[in-house]
Amino acid sequence: MVPIFDLHADVLMDLVRRDEAFSKSHNADRRPAPELEERHLSRMRAGGVAGAALADCRMAGEPAGPEHLESFIAVARRELAAAWPGAVTVLRAADLRGAMSSGAFAAVVCCEGLSATLGDIGWLWRLYGEAGLRVASLTHNDDNPFGCGALGSGGGLTEKGREALAAMNRLGILVDMAHAGAATRRDILAASSRPVMLSHTSCAAVYDNGRNLSDEALRDIADAGGLVGCMTSPAALAPAGDRANHSLERYMEHLNHMIGAAGVEHVGLGLHFCEYLYTREEYPLVSGLEDASRAQAIIDALLASGYSQNEVEKIAWRNFARVFEDAAG
Ligand SMILES: [Zn+2]
């Protein structure tokens, strides 16, 4: 097996939602035991996913405020403490490299969209220090005090967004541009003092769903020393009615195209499996890539199509390790 670092798994979103649902309906003193290992890591390990950016997310349009960030900090701390030493919280690139070679799961804490801060940049320091936050995106698909999302009004970073970006560069939080609008992406690339990532997308040249990236946009991120991740979500691969192309084969078309556009040094696997969050009607399964336990099929397909072992390891995790070191130290 070639170990994989998944650039985006909505695992903390799942666990925070379960915790919030429990808090609403039960006595918080009888909170269930931590469940990161049994609910997520066992399946990921089965597919050779040896580490991941574990994201919490407030989706576009969902209400979000500081109380949500308090839950996020509490759940991340409790779950990662309970999973240690089988899972290590990655605070620096050395932790990541150590975990990937030792067999401990490399957990990078990620916050997708910082809307819940309500624009208060002081939260970045708390999230960095208390939750171990090391990857974050400023926006989800909607606009917020930091900037415009992919389905927002079309503007770029706000002044507050520029301050938040500078704070992330200074602290050592890798900036994820997933869900940022095109102008926000351009502003981030121009203003960031460190390389950035766009953790989960696919290629508009293969299927243009309105959020997949053009070849030019992929190259812009690569030219800035960054990383783009190829995602498995059915909505990124093909139209909803085109079930035949919700498949591993179509995923490989997107991934191969992405490697051609951005270069083998600048592509990773932003798998974004989230079958555990939705019903099958909302989120139809992708044949051959039903969940994280099938992730090695991507490695097998890359090796079969002629990439060297060294190139496959770069795509699987080493490119992320390089960009993470540039951004987080
Ligand atoms: Zn996302």
Describe this structure in words.
This protein has 329 residues and is of the alpha/beta class. It has helices at 11-25, 36-46, 66-83, 93-102, 122-131, 159-171, 182-191, 215-223, 234-237, 248-262, 296-304, 309-328, and strands at 4-9, 49-57, 87-89, 105-112, 133-137, 174-175, 197-201, 227-230, 267-269. The protein has one domain (4-328): TIM Barrel (Alpha-Beta Barrel). Strands 1, 2, 3, 4, 5 and 6 form a 6-stranded parallel sheet that branches. Strands 7-8-9 form a 3-stranded parallel sheet. Helix 6 links the parallel strand 5 (133-137) and strand 6. The longest helix has 20 residues, at 309-328. Bound molecules: zinc ion. The site of zinc ion (ZN) has 4 residues, from loops. Residues 112, 178-179, 200 line the site of zinc ion.
Could you give the topology of this structure?
Blueprint: E1 4-9, H1 11-25, H2 36-46, E2 49-57, H3 66-83, E3 87-89, H4 93-102, E4 105-112, H5 122-131, E5 133-137, H6 159-171, E6 174-175, H7 182-191, E7 197-201, H8 215-223, E8 227-230, H9 234-237, H10 248-262, E9 267-269, H11 296-304, H12 309-328
Parallel strand pairs: 1-2, 2-4, 3-4, 4-5, 5-6, 7-8, 8-9
Helix pairs in contact: 1-3, 4-12
The chain binds zinc ion.
